[in-house]
Design a protein that fits this description.
The protein has 10 helices and 11 strands. With 314 residues, the protein is α+β, with helices and mostly antiparallel strands. The protein has 4 domains: 58 residues, Arc Repressor Mutant, subunit A, CATH 1.10.10.10; 48 residues; 77 residues, no CATH class; 81 residues, Alpha-Beta Plaits (2-Layer Sandwich), CATH 3.30.70.240. The chain is globular, with a radius of gyration of 26 Å.
């Protein structure tokens, strides 16, 4: 990217957020902080009203706006691809809002770019997965608004552990998507602790007029903690090549990473946070597969085999 294009991109970045740190600009364009300072100074000399504060970052003077900019073909395609993905992962209201915004984006595209998007529509699709719950009723936008406004939520939640429904009042903190499932992190007033709620298990949700003023830890800290709790274990197995076709798409839900052909077997590598769950799945293919690592997985499977023998003979 030449310097003129970078200066334009930096100006657009400054307009996209209230505060932009110099380090953010440096990381985005892979340049030094000294170069960032020079670029900012160049923009200031060109008459751009940039305000800066040591240790905080840069911002544009209030009400300063750039005229509409022309999107590149790659940027337009990225918006189009995001639209396809959001159509499957987002809730109904979020999809409508994005679609409305996308119409505005398309309105400033060139005639050639509009034709390109229309033509690309027939070549890309995100197919429904019958094993993953539909997100259309997840009410992501309502929950996000409750997080911003600090409203208490009343939910009716199905607990997979107790296999029962119960009513809870929660203080929502943030949401994240993992393995095609949406999760809500919140302070549960019933359990007096922080909990993760899978959105497809929330049967009903109501935003109460009550607001909470409890100071919760940052959402980023919860994501870090979640990663620590769900430690990933590397698993390596080999399945006979003739039997590989029987597993279908099941391995994609078990933390699948990669596969390669080794002699007459397919070696498969997984990263799993649920060894017990993986051992249950392995029982389905155990007659045609071997476990290379870890050793504890072999012990789990052998224990399950013994339990099956006992139950069959009981």
């Amino acid at each position: 990217m030449n310097r003129l294009d970078r200066l334009t991109a930096i100006l657009i970045q400054l307009q996209s957020k209230r505060i932009v740190k110099a380090q953010e600009i440096a990381e985005r364009f892979e340049i030094s902080l000294r170069t960032v300072y020079r670029d900012i100074r160049t923009l200031e000399l060109a008459g751009i009203p940039i305000m800066s504060e040591a240790g905080i970052g840069y911002s544009l003077m209030k009400d300063y706006r750039l005229p509409p900019v022309q999107f590149t073909t790659d940027e337009a395609m990225a918006f189009f691809t995001a639209d396809k993905i959001l159509a499957k992962l987002g809730d109904t209201q979020t999809r409508k809002n994005y679609e409305s915004g996308l119409y505005k984006i398309k309105s400033v595209l060139s005639h050639r770019e509009k034709e390109l998007l229309d033509d690309a529509n027939q070549y890309i699709s995100v197919v429904n997965n019958p094993y993953v719950p539909d997100s259309s009723n997840a009410k992501l936008s309502d929950i996000l608004q409750a997080i911003i406004d600090k409203n208490v939520l009343q939910i009716r939640y199905f607990s997979a552990q107790q296999f029962e429904e119960n009513s809870r009042k929660i203080e929502p903190i943030g949401m994240y998507n993992q393995s095609q499932y949406w999760y809500l992190i919140a302070w549960c007033r019933l359990r007096k602790d922080y909990r993760n709620f899978r959105l497809d298990r929330i049967r009903e949700i109501e935003k109460l007029p009550v607001r909470f003023d409890k100071k919760h830890p940052t959402f980023a800290s919860f994501l870090t903690q979640t990663a620590k709790v769900h430690l990933l274990t590397k698993i390596v197995i080999r399945i006979d090549k003739d039997a590989y076709r029987y597993i279908g798409n099941q391995h994609f839900y078990m933390g699948f990473v990669s596969e390669s052909l080794v002699d007459e077997q397919i070696e498969m590598i997984f990263l799993s946070s649920n060894m017990q769950g993986f051992s249950h799945w392995f029982m389905l293919i155990g007659g045609e597969a071997d476990i290379l690592e870890p050793a504890i997985l072999k012990e789990m499977v052998l224990e399950k085999i013994e339990n099956v023998k006992v139950r069959l003979h009981g």
